[in-house]
Amino acid sequence: MPKITMYSTGFCPYCVRAESLLRSRGVTDIDKIRIDLEPEQLKEMMKKTGRRTVPQIYIGETHVGGYDDLAKLDHKGKLLALLTS
Fold first, then answer.
1. Which residues contact 26 (CB under 8 A, 6 or more apart)?
2. pTM of the predicted model over 0.85
């Protein structure tokens, strides 16, 4: 399984939903980067993704986007393929 990285905060309901969805698909390890605890990571996230909202999720080197993007991938049946590639 590729490395999962998620930019998040401690108070974001969409981050919780994204983590729950990933775990329901068999993900056991998520590298969380807390931008509320490490503000310099916000600048890095914005530079990498062009977005300023959390969560921002990477599966391996692929930027998935936020929770809505992750849920769409799952709904289309493409999330599991990305997780097993």
1. 1, 83
2. yes
